[in-house]
Design goal:
It contains 8 helices and 8 strands. It is about 40% helix and about 20% strand. Helix 1 crosses helix 2 and helix 4 packs across helix 5. It is α/β, with parallel strands linked by helices. The chain has an 8-stranded mixed sheet with strand order 3-4-5-2-6-7-1-8, sandwiched between helices.
Length: about 220
């Protein structure tokens, strides 16, 4: 159910970043002259994502596939392939042109580096054409900032109904209580505020939270 412009509000450790990085690599490998871009909130994070996700995946492809798509350029943050495609990881990627853009932890960027978040909005997002793919994913970081506003824009579009254009964001929400591993066997004191929170989740979503989920 992905759209051209996807906003992903998620709990932690769901594998979403890994999936999107593999998808970005896949698009570059199997489409000629295709530019995939990935933005992380720090240079260290961008290099770690590149090394431990993108480069690791490429280096462990079958030999026959790497022979078909040899890397013509290999640096700490960029891979270029023999089909003219590439995947680049950085902290802003201003000035390039991309058919696929993945912005990781945009909420964290907006909360800690608001100027960088605005630069990403005015720079990198404007490098992607309307019929291409954008993925902005993050955990929540408060009720303000560029990521919050993008989520609100997507919610308004959904509430208004109608057909989304290529430039309208579509919200994908993956809350903590849908992750089966978020459970804990322990005696935990549940405050009145927590009870209200759990009741609100159950009432609005139709989900029944187990004692183990509540403890977690």
């Amino acid at each position: 159910n992905m759209h051209t412009f996807n906003v992903i509000l998620k709990a932690r450790q769901l594998g979403m970043s890994t999936f999107l990085l593999i998808l970005a690599l896949d698009e570059a490998l199997f489409n000629p002259n295709f530019a995939s871009g990935v933005i992380a909130h720090t240079r260290e994070d961008s290099e770690n994502l590149f090394k431990n996700k993108v480069k690791f995946a490429y280096d462990n492809l079958p030999d026959w596939l790497r022979a078909q798509r040899p890397a013509t350029s290999d640096s700490a943050r960029r891979l270029e392939f023999s089909n003219g495609s590439s995947i680049t990881v950085g902290t802003s990627l201003r000035g390039g042109t991309f058919q696929f853009l993945h912005i990781s932890e945009y909420g964290k960027i907006a909360a800690r580096y608001p100027d960088k978040a605005r630069e990403i909005k005015t720079g990198a997002l404007n490098t992607v054409h309307g019929n291409q793919k954008i993925f902005i994913e993050s955990t929540a970081e408060g009720n303000s900032g560029e990521f919050y506003e993008t989520c609100q824009r997507a919610i308004r579009s959904e509430q208004e109904g109608g057909t989304l254009t290529d430039l309208d964001p579509k919200l994908h929400f993956y809350p903590w209580f849908l992750n089966s591993s978020y459970k804990m066997d322990a005696e935990v004191m549940v405050t009145d505020d927590m009870e209200k929170y759990f009741s609100r989740i159950e009432t609005t979503t139709g989900t029944t939270l187990s004692p183990q989920q509540r403890s977690w």
